[in-house]
Design a protein that fits this description.
Layout (H helix, E strand, L loop, with lengths): L1 H7 L2 H18 L11 H13 L9 H38 L4 E6 L2 E11 L5 E4 L2 E4 L3 E5 L2
């Protein structure tokens, strides 16, 4: 089949045709790069498409519809829980870093180990501590102790 197309189209026409197809595919994906994971929006689109094209003389069984809506509800709740857990993790990291203020810590920085007192704490998405005048990510702290 490909040989038949190449014999009919010149290389210039084939390149133009390929560009048109690629541009069309981009509009179908709304500029998104296709991925392997389906999200809640994808699930909702599938459900709406299914409902739009169902046969009116043989509508979807009530049980099937309820099961799909339950799946959608579960997906929505799991997405919310994941976001809440991420917020909780950040809050715990900030609290842990703040509680280390003034205390002695041991930090693993690559292959070296740094020890000293926490002189400052930087809050944010990734909390950081200042030890011996150098700022380290909170996740590098291996041990907290009192001298």
């Amino acid at each position: 089949m490909a040989a038949a197309i190449e014999s009919v189209l010149s290389p210039r026409e084939k390149a133009a045709n390929d560009k048109i197809a690629a541009d069309f595919n981009k509009t179908l994906n709304d500029g998104k790069i296709p991925g392997r994971n389906l999200g809640k929006d994808d699930f909702l689109k599938i459900l709406i498409t299914q409902l739009s094209y169902q046969d009116p003389t043989a509508p979807m069984e009530d049980k099937e519809f309820i099961a799909q809506m339950a799946q959608f509800s579960t997906l929505e709740q799991m997405t919310g829980m994941a976001a809440d857990f991420a917020k909780l993790t950040r809050m715990l990291d900030v609290a842990g870093a703040s509680s280390a203020l003034g205390r002695q810590v041991q930090i693993v920085d690559g292959e070296k180990v740094v020890e000293g007192a926490v002189m400052a704490v930087e809050r944010g998405d990734v909390p950081a501590v200042m030890v011996n005048g150098v700022t380290y990510a909170w996740e590098q702290v291996a041990r907290i102790y009192e001298e």
